[in-house]
Amino acid sequence: MPLDVETCFRTQRARVYRWAYAMCRRHDDALDVVQDVFLRMLDRRPLLANPAAAIAWLRRVTGRVVIDNWRAESARAARQASHVPTASSADAVEARELADLLHAALESLSEQQRLVLMGKCYDQMTFQQIADELGIAVPTAKTHYLRALSAVRERVRTADPTPDIQAGRTS
Fold first, then answer.
1. Which of 3-7, 74-78, 81-85, 117-121 is the least confident region?
2. Which of 22, 45, 140, 146 could form a disulfide with 122 if both were Cys (CB 3.0 to 4.6 A apart)?
């Protein structure tokens, strides 16, 4: 018997909020994501035979909704590119640039890598739990995790906007 959407909402909305907040870092955005995820569930009524399948579906859709929101926000920001930040907002701009960089790094991952990384980092799941939820082998989950970490680190390292201090000096 498929799971009831209302029951799933009552039992899983806190988990979906936690995932969304971990990626968005803003309460209002996370609430919007939760709403969008459960509206999609209500509209599509996926055949989810058990709670584990529901959690996996919710995790996937949460990641997709967050990425869709990032893309929409990036498009809005590009349209408003004429705004030049002042020196007093430099710290806020730097923090936002780092957040955007991390968002882009997460977006560049494959769906499996992103799901494994979310399970391990945001929910502190074991590799066995992640493997069971996603229907993959434990070594595969570990491989996805290591590749995701490596990809995120590389993306952040290569996009580091801080200039090399030594290069700026004249001899």
1. 81-85
2. 22
pLDDT tens by residue, 90-121 = 677 777 777 778 778 888 888 889 888 888 88
Residue bearing tokens 């039992």: 11
CB 56 within 8 A of CB 11: no
Residue with token string 């209002």: 28
- With respect to residue 87, please indicate whether it lies within any of the assigned structural domains: no
Domain that holds residue 128: 93-160
Encoded amino acid at 46, one letter: P
Side-chain-side CA neighbours of residue 153 (13 Å): 7
Pick from 162, 118, 161: which is nearest to 15 by CA? 118
Domain boundary at 31, 48, 78, which?
Answer: 78
Q: Domain count of the chain?
A: 2
Q: Which spans in the chain are helix H?
A: 5-24, 27-44, 51-79, 90-108, 111-121, 127-134, 138-158, 165-168
3-state SS, one letter per residue, for 115-151: HHHHHHHCCCCCHHHHHHHHCCCHHHHHHHHHHHHHH
Q: Tokens 């710290």 label which residue?
A: 91
